[in-house]
Amino acid sequence: MTFHIPTPHDTADVVAGDGAIIRLRRYARPDALRLFLSNGNGFAIDGYYPFWGPLADRFELVVFDVRNHGQNPLATSGRDGHTYAQMTLDLERVVRAVAAQFGRRRSVGVFHSMSARTAMKHAIEIGFPWDALILFDPPTVPPRGHAWYEAMDVFEHRLADWAMQRPDAFADPSALARQYAETRAHSNWVPGAHELMARAVLREEDGGYVLACPRELEASIYLQAMTLNLWPRSNDYGGPVKLIAADPDAKGAPAPAFANRALAEEGGYSYDAIPGTGHLLQIQKPDECRAAMLKFLADRGIA
Prior knowledge:
Blueprint lengths: L9 E6 L5 E7 L6 E5 L10 H4 L7 E5 L13 H4 L2 H19 L4 E6 L1 H12 L6 E5 L12 H17 L3 E2 L2 H10 L10 H9 E4 L2 E4 L3 H10 L16 E5 L9 H13 L2 E4 L7 H4 L1 H14 L4
Helix pairs in contact: 3-4, 5-8, 6-7
């Protein structure tokens, strides 16, 4: 299967405080609930199209990549600006810019991994602009001394080491697509998603292709996950929150699956683990992920 992402109705560039550009794509739908969607570390939101594409039939969608990812140009601030603190400010600018340019309406944040952690930090520290917030498998790190702290520490450091050693230049996106397909954690994406994600995370340069997010920046985010001190209860956000996570009972389940189950139990979250999924659950079982999200919204009269 080959996915073809439709042309958005509108695009807009949001300029962050340090000059970084966040490129928004809007799929308009008059009077519909608005969904904001963004990506995980080292990936790009266009690669999640198997999840979010069908949502355009009933929602207005605003999709965007986190700084230095996907369609965004590389920021001149480099690693100094590539922080969760700056990404939190970026999200505030995005929310304000969308309201100013396209009007205010009921809105839901739908974020995966790194962008989910950013949305958690944003809600706790700046405010809750959402009618609901959907968090897909954030790399949640419990407090030091917690039963799952060491597992998350090992997980994030291994990812940082892997990121620094991964190839960063390719003759063609198909080479990266093959790498995704041959990796155990990514092998069970829906058909066509490996090629789609490879195209989404690469940009052309000097006759070849390079990672849109340099591997040094990707590695830095894995390490920063251990420094956030972010283990909020569900009632700390100021609005309804749904946690949808990887399956801790699946063979070879990654550490965030267990950490998120613990967060849900200790923090009183509405929580679903999607059976048989790992960290990229939205492109492993997109139908089930959409269903879990839509049920939560419907149960609260939001959609």
